[in-house]
Every structure is written in C-alpha cells, then in structure tokens.
Specification:
7 helices, globular, alpha+beta
C-alpha cells in the first residue's frame, strides 16, 4: 500500500477509535459553541457514538492486513464498521498524485452493524418541541428524507435534524429497487440507477434527472407539488437511500466502490467480461 494510503486509511482498532473520539469531541464542541443543527440531533449522534466506540473497544478486531483498511459510517439506518480492500489500481498511483482524497476498493465486509434508534412521529415531535402534524407534513413534502416507513407507520431516526427552510438538492440511489415512474416521465433504463432533484430558478419548480437525463423529454420544469409526490414515493420505497442518508463517515475521503462493474451470482463474484467458452475447460 502506498505511503499516502497508509497515512489516510485507518488500519488498526486504536486508530479508528481515536478518529471516532476526535469526531465526538468536535461534535460536542460545535453543539456547545456554535450549533448548526437541533439539540436532539447532536445529543442523539453523541449518544450513538458512545455506544459504537464501546462496541468497537470491546471487540477483538485484528490489525488490517496489507492492502486492507477500516471504514466507518453512520447512516439513518445504522452505524457500521467495514474492512475494505484497496483496489490494485491504487498501488499504481504516481508520487505526485498522493494528495488524492479518494480511494477505490474492490471488496468490503461489514464487521459491526449497530442500528440507529427509530422514533415514532409523536416522539420525534415531542423531543423537538413541534406538533406531530408538522412532522407528517414534512414527510409528505419530502423534507424529512431519512424517514423510514415500516408497515403503514413512519419511523424517524433519532439522529434526524429538523429541516431547514426551502428546498435542497438531493440524489436518490435506486440500487435495482422497483420504482414506478409516472407515465409522462422517460428514462433510457426502465429502472434508473440514480435520481437527481435540483431546485429551478423559477420559484415553485424543480428539475429531475434520471441517470443524468431530463425526466421529461420536453425538458419542462416540474412543479413542487409533483416533486413532493415523487419524493414521498421514493422515501416510502424499502431500502431506498439518498444523499441525506449518510450522517458521518471515516476516513474523511471519497470511497469508490469498484464492485459495481462486476456481477455477483450467489456467493461467487464473476468478472463482467467472463466468457464460459474460455474458462473451466478440461485439457
């Protein structure tokens, strides 16, 4: 593994714990000195970090072998510790590119998965000092994008901040899940891999891109009322994640999953260019 990779990527248990403790101190200082989020959000995140730090500290976690590193993330669903293998292409970086803030991995295993605490609409409203009807309205309007639908009831992660005014851009990652688009929408793929939603300059309208292409062939802008219905359907889709889903990530760099270019069949991964006529023959 290159020097820069060793310097950035945690490979030992004590390193990942130190990173988490430093992040916890930063969050606590921000909460106390110059808060940018709600108090319940900070308290929930600090409490979750306490639990996961204890969980990691009490587990037998071996030093990562050469070429592997530890990765930690908190999403609206869980806090997870992974061990990942750096793609061989990372070893070939030239020395003048060692300031790169991204890493490509080609294998990943989850070692720890600690679920986040999910709250009812009433509990979330109470802890944030608002009315339950307001929370339900936020969900219907696509403003609480980390909300999870379980059966017919909505649950909200404890580490969900109250939404800010206005509309912010978002990307939804489909990951092969079935999502029925309205008939007046068009996409080259029947099920788009990702869906981007951007605010338009014209007030009350937005632009939706499916795999980078306009959702409407006419290029017409989409009214917020229609956007809200689409976002509610996306949020209601089980397992759907979006760019608001990740709350915290360590190490602080972009990770690129190279496994997307390969096909997994059962428990075995087969390269996308695999040819059955060239492999497995008897001599």
């Amino acid at each position: 593994m290159s020097d820069i990779t060793n310097a950035i990527l945690p490979s030992e248990k004590k390193t990942i714990i130190n990173m988490l403790e430093n992040k916890q101190r930063e969050i606590t200082k921000e909460r106390d000195d110059s808060p940018e989020h709600s108090l319940p959000y900070y308290n929930g995140l600090i409490k979750l970090l306490n639990k996961i730090i204890f969980e990691i500290a009490t587990r037998q976690i071996f030093p990562a072998p050469d070429g592997w590193y530890y990765s930690f993330s908190i999403s609206n669903i869980d806090a997870s510790l992974f061990i990942r293998h750096v793609s061989p292409s990372e070893h070939e970086k030239e020395s003048d590119n060692r300031t790169s803030q991204e890493v490509i991995y080609d294998e990943s295993f989850r070692l720890i998965c600690y679920p986040t605490n999910l709250m009812t609409v009433d509990d979330y409203a109470k802890i944030n000092g608002i009315e339950p009807v307001t929370v339900r309205q936020w969900i219907r309007r696509g403003k609480l994008r980390t909300a999870v639908k379980i059966g017919g009831e909505w649950r909200i992660p404890e580490i969900t901040d109250t939404p800010s005014r206005g509309f912010t851009s978002v990307r939804y990652y489909n990951n092969g899940r079935l999502f029925i688009l309205p008939q007046n929408y068009h996409c080259l793929n029947q099920q788009p891999f990702y869906i981007d939603i951007y605010p338009a300059e014209k007030k009350g309208f937005c632009q939706i891109l499916l795999d980078g292409m306009p959702a409407k062939l006419s290029g017409d802008l989409i009214p917020d009322s229609e956007r809200e219905k689409i976002e509610l359907a996306l949020i209601s889709t089980p397992g759907m994640i979006n760019s608001s889903s990740t709350v915290l990530h360590i190490p602080n760099l972009k990770e690129i999953d190279k496994r997307g270019v390969q096909i997994r069949t059962g428990g075995m991964r087969i390269p996308s260019d695999w040819d059955p006529n060239l492999y497995g023959r008897k001599s």
